[in-house]
């Protein structure tokens, strides 16, 4: 009976797990994994005990830990799974403690003993971290960090990189625990880790929540914001928190260590901005209903809440422009690099054209913001930026035509780029510092001039038969008027004439048709034809029956 119940439980677990499987099913190279594990963990030297005990317990711990991490992801939408998460983490920690006890055997070397202690400390710290027991979690993580640092200094560089990587992973956890214990300086370290791309995994969400919490405390002191010469009160808490963190977010983007981190920070800023705009829109709906009821005389004037919405939309659109400009700058650098792998598709000018299309669309939306229709300086600045990005878009359209050897079209587009650039330079004189944050137009003009000369040379060379055209099968007798280097002519099979020759048309035997017959007039023969008498109907009948003959 007990065995039957156990089998039923296994079947139910399997049925439960089927729902989480991908469509293609899970794959596992069982024999390959078994052989590799046996060779790496003792069986090469006949050490079955090492393979049987240590590796088995380690895999049990990893299995429980990986399940806990899966539940960690799912707990964002299903909070009830957090209890299951804690149970699996505790189970992983118990397996690691068992592994540490097994490693106390004199047959186990010192390095393995230290790694087992560090692994146990790491999983124990994870459990305490989730339980928010910050002091105990920090002690466990510090123990883990100390062991790995000592191992990194004692072994080869290849192993040291692995140990240092683990230290970098747990450092944000240590600083987060320190902050919650009461170390106010730890927040600065966490912010710096965020800039360098640290604090991933479990720490990412907690770090964002910590930053939001710190900004919420400061939001109480913020009551208004000034933009385009107008002071607007900020009464929505979400808007206060976002505007307080705007400068920090922009500084973080400017100091990002790599493009991947920068892109992540841009996405985070845009997500926060969209949420804030949505909160303001909800308030705008309430305000619109109140205006309808009160029939306010100043209903045509842009309210403070509408102007705040325009400001937040301005921030979102400007951030979109900067993000796409950053991506375009990265792609321009990759375009200059030679392609090392022909099987992989490299960047093309068409990719940059799409980015500049998005930038121009954002600028078009900027010019229609409520409350800024009569701000002529703002409209001129947007118009100037539009001309700059139109020039860059036109430049890369010309580049795409160059790739397909459409020289005349590319040349016309280069002339248009110069027209846009000169127009920008003439308009920028009336607007001070308008080109400060924009791509360099003078550099674009220099590029266009250089490309024009290259284009003219390429067009001239394109009219001369290239060396690659010598690979066709035209025999020598048919191209005597054209000079071409053809090494095959001095080889074993020179292509001199075509053999067998092509069929030639020859004249066939003519066919004669009497076409003149229809145009010949024959002479009259009436005098030679016997004239018969005209007897009328009676004569005709008599003739039939033989009368009168």
TrEMBL record:
It comes from the Eukaryota. GO terms for cellular component: cytosol; endoplasmic reticulum; nucleolus; signal recognition particle, endoplasmic reticulum targeting. GO terms for molecular function: 7S RNA binding; endoplasmic reticulum signal peptide binding; signal recognition particle binding. GO terms for biological process: SRP-dependent cotranslational protein targeting to membrane. Keywords: Cytoplasm, Endoplasmic reticulum, Nucleus, Ribonucleoprotein, RNA-binding, Signal recognition particle. Its main location: cytoplasm. It is found in: Cytoplasm; Endoplasmic reticulum; Nucleus, Nucleolus. Belongs to the SRP68 family. This is Signal recognition particle subunit SRP68.
């Amino acid at each position: 009976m007990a065995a039957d119940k156990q089998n039923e439980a296994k079947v139910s677990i399997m049925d439960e797990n089927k729902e989480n499987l991908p469509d293609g099913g899970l794959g596992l190279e069982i024999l390959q994994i078994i052989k590799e594990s046996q060779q790496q963990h003792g069986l090469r030297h006949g050490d079955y005990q090492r393979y049987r005990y240590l590796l088995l317990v380690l895999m049990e711990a990893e299995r429980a830990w990986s399940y806990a991490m899966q539940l960690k992801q799912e707990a964002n939408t299903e909070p009830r799974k957090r209890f299951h998460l804690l149970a699996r983490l505790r189970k992983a920690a118990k397996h690691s403690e068992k592994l540490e006890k097994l490693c106390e055997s004199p047959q186990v070397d010192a390095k393995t003993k230290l790694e087992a202690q560090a692994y146990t400390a790491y999983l124990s710290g994870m459990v305490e971290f989730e339980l928010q027991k910050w002091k105990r979690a920090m002690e466990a993580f510090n123990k883990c960090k100390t062991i790995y640092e000592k191992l990194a200094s004692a072994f080869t560089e290849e192993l040291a990189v692995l140990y240092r990587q683990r230290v970098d992973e747990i450092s944000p956890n240590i600083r987060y625990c320190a902050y919650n214990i009461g170390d106010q300086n730890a927040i600065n370290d966490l912010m710096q880790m965020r800039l360098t791309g640290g604090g991933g995994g479990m720490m990412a969400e907690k770090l964002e929540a910590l930053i939001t919490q710190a900004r919420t405390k400061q939001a109480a002191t913020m009551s208004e914001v000034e933009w385009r010469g107008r002071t607007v009160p900020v009464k929505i808490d979400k808007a206060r928190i976002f505007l307080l963190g705007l400068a920090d977010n922009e500084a973080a983007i400017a100091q990002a260590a790599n493009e991947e981190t920068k892109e992540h920070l841009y996405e985070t800023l845009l997500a926060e901005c969209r949420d804030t705009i949505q909160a303001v829109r909800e308030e705008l709906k309430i305000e619109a209903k109140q205006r309808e009821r009160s029939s306010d005389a100043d209903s045509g004037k842009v309210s403070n809440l509408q102007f705040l919405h325009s400001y937040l939309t301005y921030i979102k659109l400007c951030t979109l422009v900067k993000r796409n400009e950053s991506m375009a700058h990265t792609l321009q650098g990759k375009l200059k690099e030679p392609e090392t792998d022909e099987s992989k598709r490299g960047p093309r000018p068409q990719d940059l054209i799409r980015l500049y299309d998005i930038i121009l669309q954002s600028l078009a939306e900027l010019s229609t913001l409520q409350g800024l229709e009569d701000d002529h300086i703002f409209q001129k600045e947007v118009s100037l930026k539009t001309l700059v990005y139109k020039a860059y878009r036109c430049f890369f359209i010309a580049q795409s035509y160059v790739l397909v050897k459409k020289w005349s079209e590319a040349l016309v587009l280069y002339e248009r780029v110069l027209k846009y650039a000169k127009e920008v330079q003439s308009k920028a004189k009336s607007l001070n510092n308008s080109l400060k944050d924009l791509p360099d137009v003078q550099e674009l003009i220099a590029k266009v001039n250089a490309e024009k000369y290259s284009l003219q040379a390429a067009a001239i060379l394109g009219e001369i038969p290239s060396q690659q055209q010598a690979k066709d099968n035209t025999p020598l007798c048919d191209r005597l008027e054209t000079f071409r280097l053809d090494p095959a002519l001095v080889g074993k099979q020179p292509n001199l004439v075509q053999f067998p020759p092509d069929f030639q048309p020859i004249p066939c035997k003519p066919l004669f048709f009497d076409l003149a017959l229809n145009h010949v007039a024959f002479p009259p023969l009436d005098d030679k034809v016997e004239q018969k008498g005209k007897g009328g109907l009676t004569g005709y009948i008599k003739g039939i029956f033989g009368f009168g003959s």
